[in-house]
Amino acid sequence: MSLDLIEPILFGLLALTIVGAGLGVVLADRITTSALLMAFTFLNMAGMFVLLGAETVAAFQILIYVGAITVLILYGVMFTPQAPRAYGLFFQKQTTVGAVVAALAALPVMVIAFAFRDTGSIPPRGGDLVPLASSIFTDFAFPFEVASVLLLAAMIGAIVLVKRE
Amino acid sequence: MTTLVPLGAFIALSAALFFIGVAGVLVRRNAIVILMCVELMLNATNLAFVAFSRRLGLIDERGSVFVVFVFVVAAAEVAVGLAIILAAYRNRPTVDVDEVREMKG
Amino acid sequence: MVPGPFDIDPLVWLVLRLLIAVVLTLVLILVGSMVLIYLERKVQATMQDRIGPYHVGPFGLLQTFADALKLIAKEDFRASQTDAAFFIVAPALVFSPMLASFVVIPFAPGIVGADLNIGLLYLATLGSMGVLGIVIAGWASNNKYSLVGGLRSAGQLISYEVPGILSLVTAVLVVGSLSMVHIAESQPGPITNVFIIPLAFVTYFISALAETNRIPFDLPEAESELVAGYLTEYSGMRWGTMLALTEYGNVTIVCAIMSTLWFGGWQGPGVDSGPITGPVLGVLWFTLKTYAFILVFMWIRATLPRMRIDQLMSFCWKILIPLTLLNLAVTATLLIAFPETKVPVAIANWILLGAFVVGVPLIQQRRLRKLRERSRARTLGAAVAG
Questions:
Q1: Which of the residues A70, B100, B101, C336 has an alpha carbon 20 to 30 A from that of C125?
Q2: How high is the ipTM of this complex?
């Protein structure tokens, strides 16, 4: 087994765990198991980003998703305690229809997805830190400022919504 | 020279994860699990953006720039979504989306 | 692919190198934590005018070894209603990010695990991953006090990440690179970064104290608060991993970051003097600087009282974060306005540091005086009325 195949092997492993953990989020019995499997999906997605050569995005993914959003969701779970049975797999009325429609829509999309071809050139070396940083602060400086205003609005909105009178 | 994984494989994986998220939103009854499945969908689109950006030889990493903005929007959305769920929970102690049916009270 | 010694197959040598590196890092952390626990007890004893451990081994040097043996031999029990999988996984979730952080720290010129070009971002990311393990530990213990302690600790950690990362970003602005190796190499000579951005150093020092749960910010894990918070149900080696190893590993990492970013890391006289003596001297300087900061951490532990949770949160959000944001804005503006020299940045930073050191106690004194007057007026009014 030569080292040439290491990228497809890693891709296969990561893809299997991502799909498995995603299915686990949807089908898990308890909500904390769903939350931890979601965090596991995020970690493997960060690994996928590193495989593509975008390591800055991978670091941001772990910092934001695993470090903040998962903790936020766990806080939400712990502040809404319910009877243990109520966390379970209660399905909505449209379960069978919904699952079938999602599966049927997924298959043609996945088949078409394989038709995308890359240009065949080797991806640029050196990672994505410098191009990403120079793009954000020169070409996309205005969306960057708008994003910070969006975060401020979300923070104020969340605080106002949960304030006790 | 290592053999590269074809671009289509990344996009197919992104599509699979996206539709798993869609199925989760349609199927589950717990509001917080629905929020988690929305995060899965956003992750899938991030993967598609980064894969296209790195593999089609685009300059300036514009796909990754958009991914950073998707991170910001996802974080803001989770915060506000959880605030809404907590506020509704204070009204009636349930997170079951089938229970929150009437518009008043 | 580089073939290994004795002509081992390159793939086998790759896996072997990885295993050797992991084993060496684990040994480093274990021995380092043992040394730090002993050092902490001796330093605290000296400052409290007593002797500390002296029974086991000469000068009590084997005390931590005996403690570790006791912890390993303890009965491993787990309360029956706790969530088995999460209870067992939580110490691993807390320990792993700390273990992974040692990869990017440069110990000497040429001795670094991996020269990542996003080294500092990687360290910040791993610091934020540790919060997840603490929340899981608090929840899995099936104990109200543990849950509240875990949530409080997580709240403190994520609040103090913000000024910490902003201080690191200020240092990165001055240096110009995120790679730890490059940061250490960019400070030759006696004028290291601490003379240019001292305020960032002070704010990072404070948020490092909070990030590693040290006094004065150790409310979540103090023994007299919430029955030791999220650690209540953990005993034996689980407690050893979660508390001792992880905390002292984290302390080592933040002190290593401080010494690399602001004091030059392995820089010192004699590091470029040869292929063998150079790295050895580099490791020596790095160890001296890191352990100097660790001793300051222990000194602070022996001296200062503990802050309440609302005091520490209000300090972070109302004082530290505006200050670090201001520092970042001022540094960035001055670096663009005067691209040649770093002297304006240094002047502005020292002025801001002076304002911080003088201003915060003044504000607190004024607030305390106003509070005392208000309460005195209230009791006087109650005495007059009734």
A1: C336
A2: 0.89
